[in-house]
Structure formats: C-alpha cells, structure tokens
Design goal:
Strand content: 15-25%
Mean pLDDT: 81
Structural class: alpha+beta
Shape: elongated
Helix content: 25-40%
Number of strands: 13
Low-confidence stretches: 1-12, 150-155, 214-220
Largest sheet: 4 strands, mixed
Radius of gyration: 34 Å
C-alpha cells in the first residue's frame, strides 16, 4: 500500500517495558499519521475467539502458512470479508465488517500504530471499515467467500421498520409541523391494499363490455384528449370527472386537505403556482364535500405536473416529489415513455396537458385564467390556447383578461390529417 504524504507531529511518548526491575526509558518519537486513501485498502485487524493461532509452528517446515483473502462488495465498498484458510484444512475463519459483532453500536475509532525503534518513528494508520474482524470458524469448500444472506441479518431493520419507528417518535415528541409533514409523506408513500386489489380483480371479471363505449374510446384516442361526451348538456357531463380520477384514487389525494386541517402552509416549492394561487379559495369553502373534491383535484393536477417534469428536461423540479404508487402506475400506463430516450413523447405530453387543462376547468368552475397553468406547464399562452381549443373550449376576454370557457354541447376543430407524399 502506497502511503500518502503523512502529516507529522513530534510528541514525547513514555514506553514502559513489561519486564520488571528495569528502569523506565523515555523515548522521543516522531509520529506520522497516514490518512485513508479511497483507492487503497487500509490494514485489516482480526482476532480468533476460538483460540486458533495462525503463528503456531507448522508440523513440517515446508508447510505454507495460512492464506489470507479479502473480499469486497461491488455495490457497497465498505462491506468487507476477511477469510483465513489454514493449510490442508476444510475449516475457514471468516469475519465480516457488516454482521455479528461488527454490526453492534460503536462509539470509538480504531487505528494501527507501528513503532520503528531505529528511526524513532511511530506511524498511525486507520484500519479498514473502522472494524475489528471477529474470525469465526466455518466449514467450506474451495470457494472461501461467504455470500451475503438475502434475508435480513439479525439485529438489522428494514427501511419500512425504521420509517415506522421514526414516525411513532415524531407523533409522540415532534412539533405540529413535523407531525403534519410525516402524515403527508406517509400518504404519498402508501401502496395498494392487497385486499382491495382482490376485490377490484373480482369486480373487473363481472364487468360487461360496452361496445358503444369502445367505439367512443377510439374517437378519444384520435383526438388525444380525456374521455368526453359530445352530447352532454352541462360542462360536468362533457368531461366526466369519474373518468379522469377513478374511485379508488381519491383516498391518495388528501395531502393538501391534511395540510389545511393541520394549519400548515402549502409551500410553493412542493406545489404548482396554479394550486398555490387558489389555496385561499379552498379555505373559504364551507361545504366539506366540495372542499375535499377541490383539494383532491388540486393534488391530482400537481402529481400530473410533477410526472411531466420528472420525465422531461425539467426533471430537477420533481426530484424529491413522491407520487402515490397507484397513480404512478396509472401514469406510466397512460403516458408511456419513449423506449430510447426514456422521456415523454410529444403525443403523450399533449395528452397529459389535456388532462391537466380539463382539471383546471373543474377547479375554476369552467371559467379559468390560463396564465398560471401556462407557467407551470412551461408553455407560452399562444401554444396553450391551441390546447384549450382542441378540447372544445372558447377563449373570451373579461376585464382585459383572457378566460377559457367550456360551452356545451362540445364542438371540436376539424382534425388535420397529414398528407402522404
């Protein structure tokens, strides 16, 4: 092992011989501290609790000494295995830096000191993984390495167990704000209930196929917009909300409502400007049913925007955002990514934008100012206007502000077909 340029410092150490009836000798030594190098393995220190002595004289002088091997985990470089194999023995002595005694709590730092009496120099070197390897006897074959167990080692906890304990401690001793944030994080990380999934599978088998609905679905795909009814007499029927937000998804969209009930702020770093600009409107609603519905719509809009950012050039804004598993699976199916670039295709991006715009119409009672949602979508007002018109909307001027409305029955612009060359 090549040494780095050591840091040197002169100190006076008192070395007391173990033999009695000798005078104490004071030796001035120069101490050198060799720091750990990322590309070099520092010394390993181990001991044999079984009493095996690797330095014990061999039966024959020609017998080789025990072989020593070190194995490193490719994924986690700090996980090491030290294997000592005595000559002509099927027993290997194995120690690890991640299990058994090494996994217990440690409140000290180990180092190895080597004293050169001739040069009066004491070198201090850190040891590998800051662990003392306990070398236990194990019967093995030619392959001396021991695979890490797939199951959890004794004493270790899963990430879910650690998160659960931290959540319990937060609920007991945390502040009001930290408790609210913990509840929000738990809601975002919830997974599908296996029992509800079984019920859903059973109900799907009982569903009768509606041929008319299938025919209308082809029209929706051609226009690349959410499911609609062009014969509807009200805007709510034109784009049915239950065809956009499914029944089982509402329970995973209560994060904004939980924040309001806890008196916490809806931070602009976590939510879009469209949502933040309408929080006051949400607070003023007295009907609990309407407030819950609107809060869930806001949450769904925010998840759609973060999914778009995550799978486009603007991934940094959604780096720490957690989309519930049930929604993430749905979005991955509806807005599939390009197999090569792993980003949203233009067609799927337009479909996602259409879903967002329909929900903004619901949020503003089908008369919305598109300026803030245009910023969230990182689009110009002119380009967004074409998307609204594609949904059958009309843009009107009100107090010098352009508003998008949804007249019924729906009338769409004619689809332009590409000419074949």
């Amino acid at each position: 092992m090549e040494e780095e340029e050591p840091e040197t410092s002169s100190q006076t150490l008192t070395l007391t011989p173990t033999k009695k009836r000798k005078k104490k000798k004071h030796v001035n030594v120069k101490m050198e501290v060799v720091h750990e190098h990322p590309e070099k393995i520092p010394p390993l220190v181990g001991y044999f609790p079984s009493g095996f002595d690797p330095h014990k004289p061999q039966d024959h002088e020609s017998d080789p000494p025990p072989t020593v091997k070190v194995f490193r985990n490719k994924a986690r470089a700090n996980r090491l295995q030290l294997v000592v194999s005595p000559n002509d023995s099927k027993v290997n002595f194995v120690g690890t830096s991640y299990s058994g005694e090494a996994a217990s709590a440690q409140v000290c730092t180990y180092a190895l000191g080597v004293l050169d009496k001739e040069t009066q120099t004491l070198k201090i070197v850190p040891i590998a993984s800051n662990k003392i390897f306990r070398l236990e006897p194990r019967v093995g074959g030619s392959d001396a390495s021991v695979d890490e167990p797939s199951s959890l080692l004794k004493g270790e906890q899963t990430a879910e167990e650690k998160a659960g304990r931290m959540r319990d401690l937060t609920n007991l001793y945390g502040t009001k704000k930290s408790i609210t944030q913990a509840k929000k994080l738990q809601a975002l990380n919830q997974k599908d209930d296996p029992r509800s999934q079984k019920d859903l599978d059973r109900k799907l088998k009982e569903v009768v196929i509606n041929k008319e609905a299938l025919e209308s679905t082809s029209a929706h795909s051609a226009r690349n917009i959410p499911p609609y009814d062009d014969t509807a007499t009200t805007p709510q029927e034109a784009y049915p909300l239950d065809k956009i937000i499914f029944k089982g998804e509402w329970d995973y969209l209560l994060d904004i409502l939980d924040l309001l009930q806890a008196g916490a702020e809806v931070e602009s770093s976590a939510y879009s400007s469209f949502v933040c600009n309408r929080i006051q409107k949400l607070k003023e609603l007295e009907d609990e049913g309407e407030k819950t519905t609107l809060a869930c719509i806001f949450s769904y809009i925010n998840h759609l925007l973060k999914y778009k950012d995550r799978n486009s050039m603007d991934a940094s804004s959604a780096k720490h955002h957690k989309i519930p598993g049930i929604l993430n699976q749905k979005f991955s199916s509806m807005f599939a990514l390009d197999s090569d670039s792993r980003r949203l295709t233009e067609e799927k991006k337009d479909l996602l934008i259409s879903y967002v715009l329909v929900l903004t119409l619901y949020a503003d009672e089908f008369r919305t100012d598109p300026s803030d949602i245009a910023r969230d979508l990182r689009m110009s007002a002119v380009k967004l206007r074409a998307h609204f018109e594609h949904l059958g909307c009309k843009l009107v001027s009100q107090n010098k502000v352009t508003m998008a409305t949804l007249p019924v029955p729906l009338t769409f612009p004619r689809l332009r077909q590409k000419r074949r060359r």
